[in-house]
Design a protein that fits this description.
By secondary structure, the protein is of the alpha+beta class. About 45% of the residues lie in helices and about 30% in strands. It is built from four helices and four strands. The chain has a four-stranded antiparallel β-sheet. Strand 2 and strand 3 form a beta hairpin. The two termini are about 20 Å apart.
Length: about 110
């Protein structure tokens, strides 16, 4: 996956986090695709929904987009997804991509 492919996948995602990630990517942020294997959206939902709940229970402010990403991972069910990160000097995003790498399932 190259930068243009990731930009295209993020451009299809209308979430606030995806738009912010796309802006950072277009201004030169680093990105990395973890392409060695996919993970089940359901498994990722289980992990991230637990983390989100712990944050709420302990009054820690969840990262921007976490609640929406958790909902989108849940909606993706058993779909296989790849993970990517986008890192700028100010922010770090986690992007969950469809198995064919054509669209963003969720972004936070």
């Amino acid at each position: 996956m190259n930068r243009d492919d990731l930009e295209s996948a993020l451009a299809r995602d209308d979430s606030i986090s995806a738009r912010a990630a796309l802006t950072e990517l277009r201004t030169g942020a680093d990105f990395r695709l973890f392409h060695s294997q996919t993970a089940s959206a359901r498994q990722l939902w289980d992990t991230w929904s637990h983390r989100h709940q712990v944050m709420l229970d302990t009054r820690v402010t969840p990262r921007t987009g976490l609640a929406e990403a958790v909902g989108r991972l849940h909606a993706a069910g058993s779909a296989r997804v790849y993970l990517a990160t986008i890192t700028s000097s100010q922010r770090r995003f986690i992007v969950f991509l469809s198995e064919d790498l054509s669209r963003s399932i969720a972004c936070m």
